[in-house]
Design brief:
The chain has 19 helices and seven strands. By secondary structure, it is an alpha/beta fold. β4, α18 and β5 form a beta-alpha-beta unit. It starts with 14 loop residues before the first helix and ends with a strand.
C-alpha cells in the first residue's frame, strides 16, 4: 500500500490541475457503473490494472477479479483520503458496518466505526478525516461536492415537483410498460422538465456540482442531454436496482447496492487489499516513470473530458505505450466528445458494439458515450 502526500501536482503535469481546485473532495462516490466497467475491461485473474482513483469504489471493484496488482492514481489528495478510508473500513469493519459508514444505511454510530478504522490510516488520511468529523457523521458517501449538489436537489428542489410517494413509485420499477406509463403520465410534468433544465444547467452544475473548468470543452446543452439519459434510466432500465438513482432521490442506496458494496463482492475485495497501491500525482507524471507493457486494463473514468483534444491524443498514446497486447481501456464522455483518433487505428481497436451495448445498460446515466479500446499486438 502506497502512502500519498497532501500536495497536488503542479499545473505543468496536467491540464486539469492548472484550472480546477483540488483542495476538496469532489466525488465521495464513483459515479460510473462498475458492472459496466468490469464487463468492458474483462480483466482476467492475475491482470495488472491501472485505475483513476476518484473516491475508490471502482478501483476496489477491480480487486474482486483477483488481479496481480491494482494501481490507483489521482491528482487530488482528498480523493485518495476517500480511498484510504475505504481500504481501512474493508479491513476493520463487517459488511453491515461498512454500509453504515458509507451512508448507504441509517446509523447513529459512524464516529465509533471511524475510530475502529483509524489505526489502519496513514498520517495524511488520518489528518484529513480527523479534521472533518461532520463528513463522517453524515456518511462518507455523501462527503463530496457532487453529492452535496445532489443533496440540495433532493431536499430543496425535488419536493417542489414530486412528493415522497411518487419517488417511491418511481424507484419500485415494475415492467417496462408500467415504468413507461408512470413516467409519461405522472413523472414527466412540465414542472419537472423546467426545474431539471435549470438545476442541471451548465451554470448551476458548474457552481454547485462540478468545477466550472470541467466544462471548458463541452458543447451544446448540458441539461438537455442529461434529461434524455435520466428518462432512459427511469424507463428502459429498472430503477429498482439502480444504486445511483436511489442515492440521488433518497440519499441512501437501500437494497440497490453498487458493485463494491455488495456482500459477496465485499469479501473478495477484502482478501485482495494487499494487491492495491495508490499514488498522488497526475496520470501523465505517473506514466512518465512507468515502463512499457505494464498494464492489462485501464479504468480511465471520464478524465479526457477535462483536456484539449490534442492533449487527449498524446495521453492516449502514452497509455497505449504502457499497455500489454490485448489490454483494454475504458472511459466515459459526459458531454465532451473524446474518441480514439483514426491515426491510432493501427495500435488500438475500438470495441464499438460492446461499448454501445454496455452504455445502453449503464445505470449511471449522466454519460453521453462510453468507449472501449483494445491494444493490438
Amino acid at each position: 500500500m502506497t502512502a500519498f502526500t497532501p500536495t497536488a501536482p503542479t499545473a505543468t503535469d496536467s491540464e486539469a490541475a492548472a484550472h480546477a481546485d483540488f483542495s476538496m473532495i469532489r466525488y465521495a462516490q464513483c459515479w460510473e457503473d462498475a458492472d459496466v466497467l468490469l464487463a468492458a475491461l474483462n480483466p482476467p485473474p492475475g491482470a495488472r490494472c491501472l485505475s483513476i482513483a476518484s473516491a475508490g469504489d471502482n478501483t476496489l471493484s477491480l480487486l474482486a477479479n483477483d488481479p496481480e496488482r491494482v494501481t490507483a492514481v489521482d491528482l487530488n489528495p482528498s480523493q485518495l483520503a476517500c480511498l484510504a478510508l475505504r481500504v481501512a473500513a474493508y479491513r476493520e469493519l463487517e459488511h453491515p458496518e461498512l454500509l453504515e459508514l458509507m451512508g448507504s444505511r441509517d446509523s447513529t454510530r459512524r464516529m465509533a466505526l471511524y475510530r475502529k478504522c483509524r489505526p489502519q490510516l496513514e498520517p495524511a488520511a488520518l489528518q484529513f478525516w480527523d479534521a472533518h468529523p461532520a463528513l463522517i457523521e453524515t456518511g462518507i458517501g455523501g462527503a463530496g461536492r457532487f453529492e452535496r449538489y445532489f443533496a440540495t436537489f433532493r431536499t430543496k428542489v425535488l419536493p417542489l415537483v414530486h412528493d415522497r410517494s411518487r419517488i417511491t413509485q418511481l424507484l419500485t420499477g415494475g415492467s417496462p410498460e408500467i415504468r413507461r406509463r408512470f413516467y409519461d403520465s405522472t413523472w414527466n410534468t412540465w414542472r419537472w422538465r423546467m426545474i431539471f433544465h435549470l438545476f442541471f444547467s451548465r451554470f448551476v452544475m458548474g457552481r454547485m456540482g462540478r468545477d466550472p473548468s470541467f466544462f471548458r470543452y463541452v458543447e451544446g446543452s448540458v441539461a438537455s442531454r442529461i434529461i434524455q439519459r435520466a428518462e432512459h434510466a427511469a424507463t428502459a432500465l429498472d430503477p429498482s436496482n439502480n444504486p445511483y438513482l436511489h442515492w440521488i432521490l433518497t440519499g441512501k442506496h437501500g437494497d440497490a447496492l453498487p458493485h463494491a458494496l455488495q456482500p459477496d463482492v465485499f469479501e473478495k475485495i477484502r482478501r485482495n487489499l494487499d494487491r492495491l497501491e495508490w499514488h498522488c500525482e497526475s496520470l501523465e507524471s505517473f506514466l512518465g516513470r512507468t515502463p512499457p507493457g505494464s498494464f492489462d486494463a485501464f479504468n480511465l473514468s471520464d478524465i479526457f473530458e477535462y483536456m484539449a483534444e490534442d492533449r487527449f491524443h498524446h495521453l492516449l498514446a502514452q497509455l497505449t505505450d504502457r499497455a500489454r497486447p490485448g489490454a483494454r481501456m475504458a472511459w466515459w464522455n459526459t458531454l465532451a466528445h473524446r474518441r480514439r483518433p483514426d491515426s491510432m487505428s493501427d495500435r488500438l481497436r475500438s470495441l464499438t458494439g460492446l461499448a454501445e451495448k454496455l452504455h445502453h445498460g449503464d445505470r449511471a446515466f449522466f454519460y453521453c458515450a462510453f468507449w472501449i479500446e483494445e491494444v493490438l499486438s
